[in-house]
Amino acid sequence: MNKRSKRMLQCMTAVTLISTSIACSKQSSPAEVKSTTNNSQPTAVTYPLNTNQTLSYWGLMGNTNMANFFSSIGEAPFGKELAKRTGVQVNFTHPPQGQDREQFNLMVASNELPDMIETNWFNNGVYPGGSQKAINDKVITPLNDLIKKHAPNLNKLLEEDKELAKMLQTDDGKYFVFPMIRNSFSQVYRGPMIRKDWLDELGLPVPTTIDEWETALRAFKEKKGASTPLSIIYSNTGGMDIQDTFIGAFKTSAGFYVNDEGKVKYGPSDKQYKDAILLFRKWYNEGLLDNNFAVTDAKANNNKILSGQSGSTTYLLSGGLQSYTDAMREKNPKFNMVGAPYPTLAKGETPFIGQYDFKVEPSRGVAISANMKKPELAVQWLDYAYGKEGNELFNFGIPNESYVSNNGNIAFSDKVNKDPKYTTIQILSQYTRQNGPFMIDERYSKLILKYPQQEEAVKLWSATDAKKHTLPPFITPTDSESKELAKLTTAIKSYKEEMQLKFIMGKEPIENFDKFVDQMNQLGLPKVVEIYQAALDRYNKR
């Protein structure tokens, strides 16, 4: 057997073992860990803690900029300052980007678990069956009593914010992670954007309806010479990366969503989804939509915007809008990319859906291994991030090095803002934890917004009904439901992507749309919707 075959066999074995042999190999239940009753009050924690115990932590570095300077969080100024303040030494292990799922499977199957594991423990995460199954298999520890007694900062947040508490529980009420908590600015960070300098030249407004968009795109092509007026990113895993821009105008979505009656629906099976496909097909035929959209990645999309081939896209607040403005400031001072509202069919309507992330980031939660005999220290160490001093360290770094504070008003230092070689974000990455188990401070988001166009874009992109119609990622299918979802959803998604491309490009007659829906039903779509609905109903009752 060659090395590659051995590696594949290891991973296949790992995935199988996660849900079977692990449960048998454990000797003690998380419930046997010393804890307090639910009536206990949190114990005041004084830092630095008095301990000689070293903790272990596994997870992605979560900060590609930091990885350019250090191989571990512990080596960075942030990590060293955190160790000094908490009195706890932590050995960090970071799997390579893109290999984290594979290494997670091998690690769990071996039962050689670190004290803390940062990954996606929710329904759509890395552990088959999600958090409840991981607790049942005695891979991770339920945290209710531990938080109540040893994490006063997080405990206070959970008591004050019932919505947050709901997101962090299993259906039977068990807490299982220390979360990454977004602020309002970091919940909406992606949306449609357009060249306002071109619009101004042409005497056109920033478009708000489908008709206005079509007018603008046609003018970009005919009067500005744009070869691809609308450029979009296509991903092999996610398909058209437009966050339901244009699709939402037809009161539907490119994936699963919740309708006005609280029922789970799958957008591509809606009759009105056909209208969205017809719109893209029309724009594709007229050259308003990039004819090469199906092979356009982020780099190619950026090149089309910066070269003037395209005047609009759907992309990121910082990595897109800000980066474009930065790149063109000297080359073309008139360049002005701005955010546009999610378009609707009728003027003045509230957009049905758009990009919206809930206040908890699912992929950055930290669970505590059930192998850990005395988890109290890990709980106290993690809780530091949710207090005032920890919050400022995680968000702004070290006082008088990366930031200065004057009566609560925080500003980044010249060391961060005026480095001759690196950007503000790159320097700041050495002093802060840009992803991970902490709360993103409102002040942080406002500090890193470089241009007024960004702040205005967030306001426009936030003015949707996305919160109401987005299926929460915190729903928890049962073990049997999860197994059925794994079998059905991949085939449905692959078929949908294949047919959607054919419809848009004219390779499949639009008259076959009903047959397309019938085939998805044959592949098990009604069962998937039924499972998600049951999980959503349980979530709403938490």
UniProtKB/TrEMBL annotation:
SUPFAM superfamilies: Periplasmic binding protein-like II. Keywords: Cell membrane, Lipoprotein, Membrane, Palmitate, Signal. Residues 1-23 form the signal peptide. Pfam families: SBP_bac_1. InterPro entries: Bact_solute-bd_prot1, SBP. PANTHER family: ARABINOSE-BINDING PROTEIN-RELATED (PTHR43649), POLYGALACTURONAN_RHAMNOGALACTURONAN-BINDING PROTEIN YTCQ (PTHR43649:SF33). This is Extracellular solute-binding protein. The lineage of its organism: Bacteria, Bacillati, Bacillota, Bacilli, Bacillales.
